[in-house]
TrEMBL record:
InterPro entries: AAA+_ATPase, ABC1_TM_dom, ABC1_TM_sf, ABC_transporter-like_ATP-bd, ABC_transporter-like_CS, P-loop_NTPase, Type_1_exporter. It comes from the Bacteria. Residues 39-321 form the ABC transmembrane type-1 domain. It is a multi-pass membrane protein. It is found in: Cell membrane. Keywords: ATP-binding, Membrane, Nucleotide-binding, Transmembrane, Transmembrane helix. The keyword Transmembrane applies. Residues 357-591 form the ABC transporter domain. This is ABC transporter ATP-binding protein. It holds the Pfam family ABC_membrane. The keyword Membrane applies. The chain crosses the membrane at residues 35-55, 75-95, 149-172, 178-197. Its main location: membrane.
Length: 602
């Protein structure tokens, strides 16, 4: 069997292909709102460069004019001019830096907001496949790479190319043959750039993927800290982490070596050219075909090329990293959200809903898995009825529930609410109508109040109080800041049963038309369970409800029970009926009243 790679093969990884910079170009839409600022900063930068370029030309006039003619007044005039040019350059640089950082930070924020909004739209199936660290690294480090490119790389690329062309034109005008010599140095520079860019792209893609791997591991460790510690798995994890961190480090060092090699070459070429022009220029001065002032201007101008060429390595590296970041960000942005509103979707409102939920020949297969989890499910929950779903562990009960709020879409058949196919109901309306509590009662790092009103932001104090009373979650008032207490990340500062009761209160808040509860009482002690049950019974009276139930005691809440077995509903009926007539049902519920035969005999 082939070894499994880290991460899912569905997530694109470093493949060594060179990006045609297409994805970087596609980000230009984010540049649009800042176009004016960008033009301003480009103009400021160009003007600053122009002011800088003028200085050597002034120097040429100084050497060939006032100095040669011993003219102090002229010297003062030209010196003043040089000083003025320097001042103008400084002001322009200030303008550039200021508009540069404000626009690039703004762009980064917009892209990040879009990415986050898109992640919200993507279905549960997408998040099943993607490691959270890969998403995290895209939202954080890839975006900051892009910001650096937008604020520095791109600008200096334009600026340096313009400077290079302008200087070469000036050099050609100063002295044709010497200028041509400098212009010819662009050929080796181009060849080095191309080769370097190709290698660097592969390395930076690998590095950014590995950053995602490291982030995933850190996140998993933080989340599963208790389990890891309890199993004494610290050292093994540290090993695994060290391996991944090592891989990241090695890629980083490799990248550094590539950049170092390229930078050395980018340094060598202009210096070699400078040496050649110095020798050539001196010969020409000796022959009298070039003045000393012209040679000074020529060399000073040429010196201005050294930095743009030297920085080429850094700019290309930055550009390639940005291209990689753009690729990785588009891998998320280009994934179409598969669960969206149909164009003619209706917005069902609470008062208009009676609450008849039907599964009509529903089949479901998880994306990427061969076997369907649910096959040809036929099931009706009448308005106001409570149906309990019972079945062996792993048979697909939670999966069935997750189809109701459309976390996944059915792959066959349909689910209807009062005759409306769920896919024809607006998602926001559907999710308002359905109250859900999952097996894992997830709480977010916000206040208890905010956690409770997640699906119902305009709930009143009375409604919240009623929901808390129903879920026997009055303990929330005794928290240090009452309902304003922030519960920790994932609500870890609360006990399992407390979290479950808050999640239940959240589900029943706002009296949803449909209640979907996945084993809502599993973490409660017998007494609390009885209290919650009694209260829940009152809510369930006028709500259609689908509950997953593992314990016989909770089954009592339901009007009818459906047995899920092998992905199919194999029996539906009253608890007592099924208990009497369906052996499989008895087996699953490990029916309380009849003790195991072995025990009776002994
Ligand atoms: N996100 C997923 N992607 C792929 N397969 C999944 C996914 N979630 C669950 N499965 C598979 O679907 C099957 C049904 O899982 P499900 O969680 O619905 O079972 P369950 O009946 O709720 O079990 P339990 O009683 O233990 O909660 C299992 O075989 C499981 O491996
Ligand atoms: Mg389950």
């Amino acid at each position: 069997m082939p070894a499994q790679r880290d991460g899912d093969p569905a997530i694109p990884r470093a493949d060594g292909r060179v990006s045609p910079l297409r994805n970087l170009w596609r980000l230009r839409r984010y540049l649009r709102p800042y176009a004016a600022a960008y033009v301003l900063l480009l103009l400021a930068a160009l003007a600053a460069t122009g002011a800088g370029l003028a200085v050597p030309l002034v120097a040429q006039r100084v050497v060939d004019g006032p100095i040669a003619r011993h003219d102090p007044a002229g010297l003062l005039r030209l010196g003043g001019l040089a000083l003025l040019l320097g001042l103008v350059e400084a002001v322009l640089i200030f303008i550039r830096r200021w508009s540069q950082s404000s626009s690039s930070v703004g762009m980064e924020a917009t892209i990040r907001a879009d990415l986050y909004a898109h992640l919200q739209r993507l279905p549960a199936g997408f998040h099943d496949r993607w490691q959270s660290g890969q998403l995290l690294s895209r939202a954080i480090s890839d975006l900051s790479v892009l910001r650096r490119f937008l604020s520095f790389g791109l600008l200096f690329l334009v600026l340096n190319v313009v400077t290079y062309v302008a200087v070469v034109v000036l050099l050609l005008r100063l002295h044709g043959p010497l200028g041509l010599l400098v212009a010819a140095s662009a050929v080796p520079l181009f060849l080095i750039s191309r080769r370097f860019g190709r290698h660097y792209h592969t390395a930076s893609r690998r590095m950014q993927d590995q950053q995602g791997d490291v982030a995933t591991l850190v996140e998993e460790t933080a989340q599963g800290l208790r389990t890891m510690k309890a199993y004494g798995r610290g050292p093994e994890l540290a090993d695994r982490f060290a391996r991944r961190a090592r891989a990241l480090h090695d890629t980083g060092v490799g990248k550094g070596a590539l950049l170092a090699r390229a930078s050395a070459l980018f340094d060598l070429v202009p210096n070699l050219t400078l040496g050649a022009t110095l020798v050539g220029g001196a010969t020409l001065v000796a022959r009298g075909t070039l003045t000393i002032g012209e040679l000074v201007a020529f060399v000073s101008l040429q010196l201005m090329l050294i930095w743009p060429v030297q920085s080429l390595g850094w700019i290309i590296a930055n550009g390639q990293e940005a291209a990689t970041a753009a690729d990785r960000i588009h891998e998320v942005l280009d994934t179409p959200p598969s669960i969206v509103d149909a164009p003619d979707a209706v917005a069902l409102t609470r008062p208009a809903v009676r609450g008849r939920l039907r599964f009509e020949g529903v089949s479901f297969r998880y994306p990427g898995s061969a076997e369907p989890v649910l096959r040809e499910i036929e099931l009706t929950v009448e308005p106001g009825e409570t149906l309990a779903l019972v079945g062996a562990t792993g048979c697909g009960k939670s999966t069935l529930l997750s189809l109701v709020p459309r976390l996944y879409d059915v792959t066959g058949g349909r689910i209807t609410l009062d005759g409306h196919d769920l896919r024809g109901v607006r998602l926001d309306a559907l999710r308002r109508l359905v109250g859900v509590a999952f097996e894992e009662p997830t709480l977010f790092s916000m206040s208890v109040w905010e956690n409770l009103t997640l699906g119902c932001p305009d709930a009143t104090g009375d409604e919240v109080r009623a929901a808390l009373a129903l879920a026997q979650a009055d303990f929330a008032y005794d928290l240090p800041w009452g309902l304003a207490t922030r519960v920790g990340e994932q609500g870890l500062s609360l006990s399992g049963g407390q979290r479950q009761r808050l999640a239940l209160a959240r589900a029943v808040l706002g009296r949803p038309a449909l209640l979907v509860l996945d084993d809502p009482l599993s973490a409660l002690d017998v007494q609390t369970e009885a209290l919650v049950e009694a209260a829940l019974r009152r809510v369930l009276r006028d709500t259609t409800a689908l509950l997953v139930v593992h314990r016989p005691s909770t089954v009592a809440l339901a009007d009818r029970v459906a047995l899920l077995d092998g992905g199919r509903i194999t029996a539906v009926g009253r608890h007592s009926e099924l208990l009497a007539t369906v052996p499989a049902y008895r087996a699953v519920l490990a029916a309380e009243p009849s003790p195991a035969p072995g025990l009776v005999r002994s």
